[in-house]
Amino acid sequence: MGLGLLTLSATLPSVTTSGAPNADNVTLNTSSMLQYQVILFFFSLYLVAFGQGGHKPCVQAFGADQFDAEHPVECKAKSSFFNWWYFSIAAGILLTLLILNYIQENLSWVLGFAIPAIVMAVGLLVFVLGTMTYRFSVKGDEESPFVRIGRVFILAIRNRKIASSAIATEESLKQFKFLDKALLAPDSTMEQGKVCSMREVEEAKAVLRLAPIWATCLIYAVVFAQTSTLFTKQGATMDRSITRGIEIPAATLQCFISFSILLFIPIYDRIVVPLARAFTGKPGGITTLQRIGTGIAVSAMAMVIAALVEMKRLQTAREHGLVDKPNVTVPMRVWWLVPQYSLCGLSDVLAIVGLQEFYYDQMPNELRSIGIALYLSILGVGSFLSSFLISVIETVTGKDGRDSWFADNLNRAHLDYFYWLLAALSALGLALYVYSARSYIYARRSTS
User: Fold this and answer.
1) Are residues 126 and 149 in the same domain?
2) Which UniProt key words apply to this protein (predicted)?
3) What is the pLDDT of residue 444?
4) Structural domain span for residue 162
5) Residue 48 domain-assigned?
6) Number of domains within the chain
7) Same domain, 321 and 290
8) Residues 4 and 65 in one domain
């Protein structure tokens, strides 16, 4: 619906300016209708965002639910599902960057919006046609998982003054032992009998154990945000020509990430995982936490490479006297950026897919879509943190009329300093992540 309304909003100008009896009416009608067009346009965007909020977490969790985690073959297939899911996402992004952006910029915005609207309609039809073949999780009369987990925290707080020695040793779990007090009956006679089961306490601990992993992955999300922002600005100043008269648009440089993902996912899924599985015996070859940590390490390497390339770009600008000529292309080929884009793509294959699988697998069964939403929230919060960090650095380094690290003239800016800072923060974040991951206890043995 949102994409369909976007298509409609793009057609309105040609409709509203035709058939007016005089120039004044044309101006009046056009002004009035343009206002409605803007309202319709933003309503359509929010409708798309609303649909994404329901679609992204649920469809991925629903797809993974089609595999039986207790079946050895299907357990392996489920791990591959997350790989090929992200492969498909990368393929779609690549087609958008190469084809759809060209159509929107050079042919027609109406056609540029209509094509994805038609594709989504076909996708919806295919999804509905498969209804009879899906596996559905049949829920009994069990309480909502939110109620069960919330009761654990409430009872643990109410029983906080009860001595821990009152809990039998064999019942005490390894982490967050303060929640074990939810296993005890409250002192109040009115609340006698309100006791949580061991399973409910384990569920609450499983959710709480995810918090340190979520927090330590935020710096990775800050690095992730640079690929579509500062990397693009960096590339816009460089020589992007392929042949005479043909130049790569700066935004299209993100294709290198998609190419990297399309290259590395088959290699990882068909070569790395089987080899690692032969040594470890684990369905995914390595644990999801090991995969995520490796991805964070690769993202730190990408920032080091990005800083070195930016230093080279600044040096080239100085050598050719272009420091105060921001509109002149720096004589440095854009291919210098391919390594940092490629490393970011490899990092996505490891960390992004790993986070998807980890948060799906480690949440209680009824909260798996919430788990995928938690993974998405890492990227969302990371984008906000990136904006906040850039704003603070801009204010601090741009005092007294000095050029800040993010000056409009990139030849006087210092993106290299910012990349070095992100590399250092990534190293710190990786150390904190490893500390949290080493003490993490998997909720299910299939991923341990």
Assistant:
1) no
2) Membrane, Signal, Transmembrane, Transmembrane helix
3) 57
4) 145-196
5) yes
6) 3
7) yes
8) yes
Residues 73 and 187 in one domain: no
Say which residue the tokens 């005089």 belong to. 22
DSSP bridge pairs for 239: 333
Write down the pTM of the prediction.
0.77
Out of 114, 136, 158, pick the residue that ends a domain. Answer: 136
> Rounded to the nearest 5°, which phi and psi values hold at 436?
-70, -40
Which tokens belong to 187? 């002192």
- Could you give the CA distance from residue 406 to residue 386 in angstroms, rounded to a whole number? 13
3-state helix/strand/coil string of the chain: CHHHHHHHHHHHHHHHCCCCCCHHHHHHHHHHHHHHHHHHHHHHHHHHHHHHHHHHHHHHHHHHHCCCCCCHHHHHHHHHHHHHHHHHHHHHHHHHHHHHHHHHHHHCHHHHHHHHHHHHHHHHHHHHHCHHHCCCCCCCCCCCHHHHHHHHHHHHHHCCCCCHHHCCHHHCCCCCHHHHHHHCCCCCHHHCCCCCCHHHHHHHHHHHHHHHHHHHCHHHHHHHHHCCCHHHHHHHCEECEEECCEECCHHHHHHHHHHHHHHHHHHHHHHHHHHHHHHHCCCCCCCHHHHHHHHHHHHHHHHHHHHHHHHHHHHHHHHCCCCCCCCCCEEEEHHHHHHHHHHHHHHHHHHHHHHHHHHHHHCCHHHHHHHHHHHHHHHHHHHHHHHHHHHHHHHHHCHHHCCCCCCCCCCCCCHHHHHHHHHHHHHHHHHHHHHHHHCCCCCCHHHC
Enumerate residue ranges in the chain where pLDDT < 50.
15-21, 23, 26, 169-172, 189-191, 445-448
| 225, 344: one domain | yes
Kindly state whether residue 204 falls inside one of the protein's structural domains.
Answer: no
The answer to whether residues 258 and 346 belong to one domain is yes
* The predicted structure's pLDDT at residue 220: 93
Pull the structure tokens for residue 197. Answer: 């089961």
Whole-number pLDDT of residue 269: 83
Whether residue 96 is found in the same domain as residue 217: no
Beta bridge partners of 243: 246
Nearest to 258 by CA among 83, 86, 84: 86
pLDDT digits (tens, 9 = 90+) for 158-214: 877 776 655 654 444 566 777 777 777 665 544 455 677 777 787 788 788 888 999
